[in-house]
Specification:
The complex is a heterodimer of chains A (84) and B (198).
Chain A: H1 3-14, H2 21-25, H3 41-55, H4 61-64, H5 70-83
Helix pairs in contact in A: 1-3, 1-5
Chain B: E1 2-8, H1 9-15, H2 21-27, H3 30-38, H4 42-64, E2 74-77, E3 87-92, E4 95-103, E5 107-114, E6 122-128, H5 134-153, E7 160-164, E8 170-174, E9 177-188, E10 191-197
Antiparallel strand pairs in B: 1-5, 2-3, 3-4, 4-5, 6-10, 7-8, 8-9, 9-10
The chains are: A mainly alpha (84), B alpha+beta (198).
InterPro entries (chain A): ACP-like_sf, PP-bd_ACP
Organism (chain A): Spongiivirga citrea
Protein name (chain A): Acyl carrier protein
Amino acid sequence: MSDTNLLEKLKTIVEPYVQNKEAFSTISEETDFINDLKINSANLIDVALDVEDEFDIMIENDDMDKMLTVKSSLEVIEQKLAEK
Amino acid sequence: MIGNDVVDFQQAQLDGSYNRPRFMDKTFNLHEKEYILANEYPHKMACIYWSVKEAAYKAYVRETRNRFLNPKRIHLQLKDGVKEPIDLLVSIDSFSYMVEIEVNECRVVSVAKSMNQFSKKLFSHTIQLPSNQYSIQNVYTKTAVLDFISKHLNKPKHCLSIGKNELGIPFLFMDGSKKEHQISLTHHGEYAAYAVAF
């Protein structure tokens, strides 16, 4: 799957939890879920669960540990997809 | 170092996170889950434990500058026979925090402080918000904490402002210079809370 496709899928997953809609419109790899999008941290766990469902992968807590930005989340997803 | 967190029980029910079994698996260690499930009100207990973890996490980030998304790294020291604790000892890696919990039927507010060498005076206040819109809640909470600090330090409000560092931690500025006072802000659903250490 291309990076753009992954990003688009991640955007769809993240959108319902975003509190700062303006920052969402300019989302990039550098975007921070909490500091930029103002997603509350409980919802970040929901994001990890939704990612598992969407990509049919298992995210262990040690992988989830770094899923605070778009970039690190994409890295985790790519790694897990490669392991499938 | 300090950190705080509020959870609005009704909002948490609407959000639905705690009703997802896998959410519970990713968030709570085995013994924490046992305590939650043994409680008469498991949803409320899950909210309380979450807020305790989040408050301790904020103090930890302030202390170590290290962020992570892994609530199971945050360990609650639970005591047998205590149904609704008023404070809890929490450990994250080698760091320990004492977290005070204030609960009523609508929300829980948790305030964490470092166990080592914490000598500052700590204040915590909870407010009911006029709107559920994020931007309004944010301004309202900041205004409330600045009102409090202004009165406490006897300093005009226009001299005070709040900024955030790259980790998202709020700081007090007085007459344009950054102060050592610690501020922690939180809001969820209808409630906001602030903690200030002078």
